[in-house]
Structure formats: structure tokens, C-alpha cells
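Dear colleague,

Thank you for sharing your sequence with our group. We've completed the structure prediction you requested, and as agreed, I am returning the results in plain text so they can be pasted directly into your records. Please verify that the sequence below matches your submission; if there's any discrepancy, let me know and we will rerun it promptly.
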Amino acid sequence: MRGASPVRLVITLYEQLIEDLRRAVIAQETGALERRTNEVNHAFQVIAHLQATLDLERGGEVARNLANFYTSLRVKLTEALARQSAPLIEEQIGQLVMVHEAWVEVEGATAGHGEGSPVRSPESAPVPTPAIFATDWRA
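Please find the predicted C-alpha cells below.
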């Protein structure tokens, strides 16, 4: 995704995470446990990338909250694997969908702003701004 904004890249990673976990649920429900594990393992890689790109210094409380969210997500997904629980995976998908929607709002609010322009998050969605993330994406 050459030329994509940092926010667009985050949105794309969330979409990948959600898709990985939806496929994991289907695999769990059909008894394809190896495929389920592979899908969740890929989700772990995406989560690790998201967490590694947080800029905790510039991102402040929002970045810390996202770091905690990603840690919690990994714990819940590990629990879902151990318990072989599709509902627990679906619960995490719901959380990801909500955060994804907030990122989409940020993208809409930042449309037309230049790279260096200060950006405010919408009042209705206290979500991270692009400044939280490192600009060196290797997708």
C-alpha cells in the first residue's frame, strides 16, 4: 500500500485482523483446529505489528490505552485457543470492529489535511491520531 496514509494502513491492518479471526471462528466451528490456530497466529503477528508501531511518547494516554488493548486482545485470543472457544474469538472481533470504526472516523476527519497538519480526533470518538504511530511502515 505504497503512498497510503498511516491511518489507512492502521485501518487495513484492523481489517486483516478481523478477517483472520472470522476465518478462525469458521475453522473452529468446522473442527479445523490447525487452520484455526494458523489464523489466530497470523492475527498475533498483525497485533504485534500494530503494537510495535505505537509511539508511546508522542501518543500519550491514547497510545498506552491501545498498548493495553493489544495486550488484552492477545491474552483473550490465547484463552480462546486453549478453551477452543469460537464465542470468545467473536467477542474479540466485536472489540476490533468498534476500534476499526473509530479509525475510519479519524480517517474521515483527517481527509484533506497534509502530513504535517495538526489533526484532532472527532469529539464523538476519542481515538488515536496518526501522530501515535511511527511513519516507517513496512507492509
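Summary note from our side: The two ends are 7 Å apart (CA to CA).

Kind regards,
the structure core
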